[in-house]
Amino acid sequence: MSSGPNIFDRRLLRIRQIRARRLTPATFLLDRVAADLAERLSAILRKFDVAVDLGTPTDAVRRVLLTNKNIGTVVTAGLDRGGDGLRVTADEEALPFAEGSLDLVVSALALQFVNDLPGTMIQIRRALKPDGLLLAALIGGESLAELRSAFAAAESEVEGGVSPRVAPLVDIRELGGLLQRAGFALPVVDSERVVVRYDSALALMRDLRRMGATNILHERQRQPLRRATLARMTEIYAELFSDPDGRIRSTFEILWLSGWVPHESQQKPLKPGSAAQRLADALGTAELPAGEKPERG
Fold first, then answer.
1. Structural domains counted in the chain
2. What is the per-residue pLDDT for 28?
3. pLDDT of residue 67
4. Pick the residue with more confidence: 260 or 2?
5. Is residue 295 very low, low, confident or very high in pLDDT (cuts 50, 70, 90)?
6. Helices and strands (H, E) in the chain, number of each type
7. Is 296 within the bounds of a domain?
8. Which end of the chain is more exposed for a tag (fewer CB within 10 A), N or C?
9. Which residue segment(s) compose the domain that 181 sits in?
């Protein structure tokens, strides 16, 4: 296991995910991500002999990989996952794959709960072959901003203080740098915001329970949530984040990242001074020494 920061109680995460599967799971975000992943993979015209679905809570991504004609062997890696096909029991924080053994690693809405994300990216990078690809979607830091705000206001008003209720998630501005530090080339990061409407904040919290995405912070409040705080939170949420029809809004940010293991076939930036034509010639202008100003007509 990683010796890095210990923000998330990953044992509790597994318990919550098992509970979510026993309930009627709320999989709309995962299904959306799986459909988007299928489209992104379809634009890559190369073959991946061995692909791993890492940590995805459902089989939505595995089904996408199995139907892609450019993908050979598909391995599902995660904890507490049964079912058919090739499956490996693995924690995203301690990958069991040999160096240079994989061609493709994909992951959907799992890596945001890794305590040491840079460490996990380095492990993925080592497990991939040259010109191997990491393609993953994470829940981003702008998610559930409305719920955070309503809880903070309610707790401050009712209890005189604020406790961590929603996990701190990764910021999009950090991901590109993390990919590069892990040794990936051609890093690409983009985001999508999905706004979901609910009848009430309580309905949103029920969906989070059915996603297995309730509070797993080590520093979480261990005492039961006060009824007065919960009631005031729902009131504040409705006051600040409801539409004219009375339904509330909840924002989920999905961060996409991709990176390739360096390979000689990949495009590389030109070295400084290697251009065959001056920029001034291409633009049809006169080149002036530094510090000189063009004459005004």
1. 1
2. 94
3. 95
4. 260
5. low
6. 9, 7
7. no
8. C
9. 10-264
- The rounded distance, in Å, linking the Cα atoms of 78 and 97 is 12
The verdict on residue 124 lying in a domain is yes
For residue 116, what is the domain's CATH number? 3.40.50.150
82: helix, strand or coil: coil
Residues 128-171 have pLDDT tens digits of: 999 999 999 999 989 999 999 999 999 899 987 766 655 667 78
Task: Confirm if 83 and 59 have CB atoms less than 8 A apart.
Answer: yes
DSSP β-bridge partners for residue 137? 108, 256
Task: Specify if 123 maps to a domain.
Answer: yes
Distances (CA, A) of 203 to 41, 65, 137, 234, 239: 34, 33, 25, 10, 16
What is the spatial distance between Cα 289 and Cα 281, in angstroms, rounded to a whole number? 15
Does residue 203 form part of some domain?
Answer: yes
Provide the token pair at 22.
């026993």
> Does the predicted model carry a pTM greater than 0.85?
no
Instruction: Output the DSSP codes for 279-297.
Output: HHHHHT-----TT--PPP-
Q: Which residues contact 65 (CB under 8 A, 6 or more apart)?
A: 51, 53, 71, 74, 106
- DSSP track, 158-215: HTSS----S-----HHHHHHHHHHTT-EEEEEEEEEEEEEESSHHHHHHHHHHHT-S-
